[in-house]
Amino acid sequence: MEMHPLWMLVDPYIIWFYRLTGYAFADFLLGTFVLAWIALLVGEFTISMVFLVSKQRIDASTEESRHYQDLSAEALSAGDKEAYRAANKLANDAFGKSFFMQIALSAAFLWPVFVALAWMNQRFAELEFPLIFTDYALGCVGVFIVLYVAAYLIFKKIKYKLPYFRWIKTILDSYQSGPVEAKSFTDGLPAVRKDEKR
């Protein structure tokens, strides 16, 4: 199978990691582990960059959702069903917008995985590693996924020791400890005295 021009461009650099020891199986594991790390790091940087670029829109969408949620809670406590339905619909629309932005962020994290797998499919599609004591075999995609998970678990332990990702975490933490809290639907309800509960 003829290699795509994009893969021909990056192939000499990636395949170098598959020729480090001279032992085919060890080289395959080592090269795939390095490739998994590259895919993981590119994904982490991409999702953080997309987050920083779209932060204002995410903030605006979150604020909009909170605003309409507050309005719907106030309308409910005032007994205004029409206003409640209208504000609730707008709150749901704003929440949906925010939700799909988060889905887009997830895609920014995963795209390097698909690129790496596409390259591996060009290079190692016919490789299979029999699993001991079973009739099954693991292909190059399965090996990549196992090593990617291992790289992810290792990176998770050191991620916030790196200044850049620690800075990103500080920004994300500010969302959880923000000063503005959305009103609860029970905020407008009269308090129930203890003796009334009996």
Descriptive notes:
With 198 residues, the protein is mostly helical. It is 74% helix and 3% strand. The chain is built from 7 helices and 2 strands, in the order ααααββααα. It has helices spanning 5-15, 24-53, 55-78, 81-124, 140-158, 163-176, 194-197; strands at 128-130, 137-139. It has a two-stranded antiparallel ribbon. A hairpin with a 6-residue loop joins β1 (128-130) and β2 (137-139). The longest helix is centred in the middle third of the chain and has 44 residues, at 81-124. The chain starts with a helix and ends with a helix. Mean pLDDT is 82; it is low at 188-198.
Short description:
By secondary structure, the chain is mostly helical. It has helices at residues 5-15, 24-53, 55-78, 81-124, 140-158, 163-176, 194-197, and strands at 128-130, 137-139.
